[in-house]
């Protein structure tokens, strides 16, 4: 299993990104990036503007088809290399494994990444259903579990008791998340009327209503003030603690990254330049060079030292 | 959320620089019901009048210039010879003068800058009224709809004289139903469909072809008795028409629903035209432009409306009157319309309906939540098409004649105008718009008083002006209320209280 | 072969007319992103203005020089149609700019109904025939009694179209107006912030589009010698098809699309069935949009997540 990250041995992976490249015409946005997101961990992807972070996200969530590369998501537990190779060779998008199931995300269309592989995401520029209420937003998110009996379920059309029970369950779940993000009072207000910080948290709650195994957050702290940012950290930590959901996040805000991440991947110009615990990354000379803007020749010196 | 109206600012009480400028390039709707924005603010009364007069003269001259070629001259046929010209400069002058005077009056009253500052988000008094009356509106509308034919009989003094009014009711209700059907596609799912009439045509032709089909008639005559098919064809074909229309909705929808915005509109328009052209040219099936006639009339669930002993009147001890059938037709279309409304209300509370609205709000977010947007769009398209098919079958059994001429693009445009004018998504708004537009258009037929000698004289044909006025009204209404009569949205589910969502937050969809 | 050549000539002539109308659609769509449904009827109005002008020049003023008549008619039709289109934009579209997306579309449909019915009321519902103006033809080749002809009027149509397109191309590419137009296409707000008079640019776009439609209208009148108040819709839809086929927003695309639609229509009528020629045109529209939504020369639309 040479293709997987060397660190993978130590951690149980939920997602293995393997030689991912994405090309737009002549532009290489992501160049041969491999990393692993650990199960039950918060993995952060950081890097300067234009480093290709959001492109990686869009590939993982199926909005872009990667030019090359493999994105393996594991349900239940990590698959063995043989199982991974077998599914890859089969040409199918998923396969059962001893531990659970294995999905190759690059072979799934976006909505199936969400509904089958159970990867949920938020967006850099918030995408709430602004003309629908906060509660309705959380109910729409449960679309998949509510339509397991078909889009035009007769029980729902006739409003039978079995449907009412199911509906009640959905309401309870929405209420649970409203409590988690402290927006019970505003449940009946249109989502577009909420302040920015609340919209961010609502979007995360909406994503959580889909029961994801992996939650991808695209700059969740962007534009938040310190108080809102702290509330966000609290929410993310509680998700990691109380739910069986791993988190992958893109972030600029170093306080968020360092405080809550278990693992950090650093990208620059589409390439991975570092990968490790927050402490390791913080002290990585290449990262320092990229973030603090060390002159190029100095960087070479630093790199030479590291190489030595 | 009712905002208090912004207080009137007396003219001249503010320095002109501090007044909000309306003509921002981004083009915020300024709510002015007319051509150009009013003349610039002037603090002095004299210059207000002065600029108003200048504006009036300019618009008068412009009107004159615009009308000069096509109203001032007329290419007239003289027997079989070449065209000649007749001159009507007087008419041009009259119109120009009318426009100038009208603008002058409006400039000095309604449009005077500073008289009332309207903003785009401020709900009008009308919307506030609708919102207050909303809980009572539905039952009131429904009760009135049930009582309408009896009121018509009562007020017009007898069965036969009420015919015009009941016919009008049927006509309006057909459009209410079509509006409600299209509303699912355009208002809820945000998919712009300019070819809705295609499904109306599919429904109508399905019923027309099946009910006049000789083999079917013989088949049923052999098994279930002579006259069975004539008596029951509508009730058996109604679901078939709906299903077939929905089926066509899926077939047409499948390739086109990944298109966005205006492209979808154009493709649906093209499909509508293709279906009409095929109906015209496929003579062996549809009898071409001549249409299909002698469609059996509607029966009271198998009991025919005729003067025979088995007829409706004889069986229920009534005197035979052809109006029985008309009144029954009224209740059939009322029932179909109510069915459309109820199904829509129910679907909106189901995941699929919520997904439609979510799709209108943000398609990408929908996909990130695992919603299969193509399938969701198809269900909206097919559901809307199904109700169009029902309405089509009803149209065929009412008129008992179908021809491609009934299914032109104009028909789609009128239905879409009803939906947009009603305020997309609002059922009461759509019903109101249908009554206003269709009822109004019918009223325009009755302008014969204009033929009086002191007005336009007996040569004047008011019905010619009907579509002219209709087109003008469409433009004027859009400029006046771009978001329709009822623009706010009522949520389908609530925790503590149901609050309307203001129009500025509700999206209109991209597809 | 002879039939083919003859149809090629006819198709190119028809295509020139469609191309001229298509430019109006493509420019307006490019700059404010709306399908100007009334454009087909503006074309029809221009043909009527041309008709009145020709009648005025021939029967009243007694002019006989065909080329002078054509030149004056073209000029008059362009000016008046431009004025009509300017007024339409001002009255029916500008108040709706930036609001609800469907509102301008409904307004445009209303305007289309208004225009065709206005002409019906003002000029009467019957076909208006003109005596043929240019009747000379050149026989390009002849074999077995089948003559392939190139009519003078076809030459006029192609030459006028080409000349106008060249002028128009210069206008859009080289003048400040063209630059302002392209700026507004990219970002209207930013253009306004940089001092471009957006309102005037949009107005001028409508006027130019209408002027080209007026040329098409006069050519149509000259070519067919008859015009009717209902003649706006179908050429309008076909021209729109042309604009879409060429890639909406692209000016060379509109012309290319127009020529293609003209050719397809004539060849379809000649070789398959004349009844289904409009079905063919609409089917092309559908197929193009489904398989090639950006058109032949358009830029593909990238979905931003």
The low-confidence parts of chain A are 1-9
Largest sheet of chain B: 2 strands, antiparallel
Care to count the β-strands of chain A?
11
The total count of strands of chain B amounts to 4
Brief write-up:
Chain A is an alpha/beta fold.
Can you describe this structure?
The complex is a heterotrimer of chains A (308), B (511) and C (305). Chain A has 13 helices and eleven strands. Chain A has 308 residues and is of the alpha/beta class. Chain A has a six-stranded mixed beta sheet with strand order 7-8-9-3-10-11, sandwiched between helices. Chain A has a five-stranded antiparallel beta sheet with strand order 2-1-4-6-5, with helices on both faces. The radius of gyration of chain A is 20 Å and the shape is globular. The two termini of chain A are 27 Å apart. Chain B has two domains: 46-76 and 84-108; 161-505, no CATH class. Chain B is built from 17 helices and four strands. In chain B, the strands form two sheets. Chain B has a two-stranded antiparallel sheet. Chain B has a two-stranded antiparallel ribbon with strand order 3-4. In chain B, helix 4 (163-188) runs parallel beside helix 11 (323-348), helix 4 crosses helix 16 and helix 5 (197-211) packs parallel to helix 8 (262-281). The longest helix of chain B is centred in the N-terminal third of the chain and has 32 residues, at 125-156. Chain B is globular. Chain C has one domain. Chain C is mainly alpha-helical. In chain C, strands 1-4 form a two-stranded antiparallel sheet. Chain C has a two-stranded antiparallel ribbon with strand order 2-3. Chain C is globular, with a radius of gyration of 19 Å. The longest helix of chain C is centred in the N-terminal third of the chain and has 31 residues, at 2-32. In chain C, 72% of the residues lie in helices and 6% in strands. The interface between B and C is large, with 73 and 80 residues.
